[in-house]
Amino acid sequence: MSQYSIGEVARICGINPVTLRAWQRRYGLLKPQRSEGGHRLFDDNDLDTIRTILSWINRGVPVGQVKALLEGTVAPLPSGWSQSEHRLLDALQNSNMQKVRQLLSELGRDYPAMALVNNVLRPLRTRLSSGGPALMLLRNLLDGILIEHAVMCLNAARKRPGVRVVLLGWGTIDSTELWLEAIIRSEEGVQIDLLPQPLEEPQLENLRAHQILVWSEGRLTRVQKNRLAQWHEQGLPVELLGSAALLTDPAPGAGDDHD
Fold first, then answer.
1. Structure pTM?
2. For residue 36, what pLDDT is reported?
3. 71, 89, 111 - which closes a domain
4. Calpha distance 116→122 (Å, rounded)
5. Are 186 and 162 in contact (CB under 8 A)?
6. Residue ranges for the chain with pLDDT beneath 70
7. Helical pair 81-93 and 97-110, crossing angle rounded to 10 deg
8. Considering 44, 50, 87, 215, which has the largest number of Cβ atoms within 10 A of its Cβ?
């Protein structure tokens, strides 16, 4: 049976090694073997267990309840995402910013970044955006803490080998979405350079990167569509993100020369 290091498992499953360690130490979900040098070694059965854990988490089961589910001792419980969201909201409403930071750090260790961002952080920001000035103030406070957290994630990712990726905003966007996307991408084994201010007319021709991630929101204008098509025709490794990616057809010619 094949054996994998924690770094290899992280790349295969798309999970931060910190999360894998937390699942082992805090929750007893994994029991890797050890090499003679004391390093964790995972096998194919461990990979299957990790995929099962991810399936439960993606269905909203709190990580603290997964062990009992794996052992078959309890039935699935209701979604835990709303509980995590409520804990963060409660700390915000009580002006306990240090508690917010602590909760975010704990959640960041316990859950894969994509699950945390899409199921807790983005819904919480949407909830705070739907209220009046008082809730918008809380959202701005939360955004500051999210940016702090994203910077820590990016710095941690730079300690590991990876290709260079540039992330930027195009046009009028919610800039915090760039930082949330950076949190997700930081688990993908890449080195991310983030441009914090969106650009109206990005000049990407001189960028040297393995991939250029361009976040845009709403329908692209005709000028933007033409610009995107030009980038693709020039062979630039541009990927469109945000709601614009869902509202925009593939650029003419993009990928036409591939079988």
1. 0.77
2. 87
3. 71
4. 9
5. no
6. 1, 73-80, 249-259
7. 160
8. 215
What total number of domains does the chain contain?
3
CB 44 within 8 A of CB 2: yes
pLDDT at residue 257, as a whole number: 38
Domain that holds residue 130: 81-157
Q: What is the pLDDT of residue 65?
A: 81
If one counts every other C-beta atom within 10 angstroms of the C-beta of residue 53, the result is: 25
C-alpha distances in angstroms, 82 versus 48, 60, 212? 27, 9, 33
Q: What was the pLDDT predicted at 234?
A: 95
Do residues 60 and 85 share a domain?
no
User: 238 and 180, same structural domain?
Assistant: yes
Report the pLDDT value the prediction gives residue 71, as an integer from 0 to 100.
Answer: 81
Q: Look at residue 254 and tell me if it is in a domain.
A: no
Helix (H) or strand (E) segment spanning residue 57:
helix 44-58
For residue 258, being part of any structural domain is answered with no
pLDDT, residue 82, reads 83
